[in-house]
Amino acid sequence: MRRFASLRLLVIALAAVLALPATAQQIAAPKTTVLVTVVGNLAKANRGSYDAVSDVFFKHLNLPFTNAATFDYGMLTALKKHTVKTDFQMGGKVRSFSGPLLADVLATAGATGTIATVTAFDGYAAELPIADIAKFGVILALAEDGKPFGVGDYGPTWAIFPRADKQALKGRNDDAWVWAIAAIAVK
């Protein structure tokens, strides 16, 4: 009789633990140099909180955070690749850009919110409505015409709007086309 009572208590305790709400999940840690860091409202992370002593670049950007999802080149290329055609600068030559959808990068981090502030290494930032990121298929470009970006030629990542592919974007200026992206803060 005692065995069954103990077993019953064990089953009840296990059921109670399984019913607890999930906390922030982990995503794989980057294996090479981090190209992009996503911070803000995240359900998944692979690094801890901002440290004012060691995170000097994020301090320079005034971008403290409690946790972050960091992505290296391999993690970004593991996401489904999309290719879009667009003119840059507006009215210029139409070229092909490829990389994952920015919405997929944010989804990998479990990001939720309405605004993604995309910040470049030089501190330039643009606030992008997350609804527009999804609606227009904005990509986090890693390459132009098949050639990967490097630092100094808009890379290593660039927010690209498919202006040549989407009529609704034809007159939209280049202000939101942040290149050399360092961080994306979701709120």
- Count of DSSP helices? 5
Strand order of the largest sheet: 4-2-13-7-8
- Give the topology string: H per helix, E per strand: HEEEHEHEEHEEHEEEEE
Identify the CATH architecture: Alpha-Beta Complex
According to CATH, the fold-level topology is Sulfite Oxidase, Chain A, domain 2
Mean pLDDT score, rounded? 85
Poorly predicted parts: 1-23
How many separate domains? 1
CATH top level is Alpha Beta
Coarse shape? globular
Largest sheet: 5 strands, mixed
Q: Can you count the beta strands?
A: 13
Radius of gyration: 20 Å
What is the strand content? 25-35%
**Helical residue percent?**
10-25%
Walk me through the topology.
Layout: H1 2-18, E1 25-26, E2 34-40, E3 44-45, H2 56-60, E4 68-72, H3 73-78, E5 81-87, E6 94-100, H4 102-108, E7 115-120, E8 125-129, H5 130-136, E9 139-141, E10 143-144, E11 147-148, E12 158-160, E13 181-186
Parallel strand pairs: 1-3, 2-13
Antiparallel strand pairs: 2-4, 5-6, 6-10, 7-8, 7-13, 9-12, 10-11
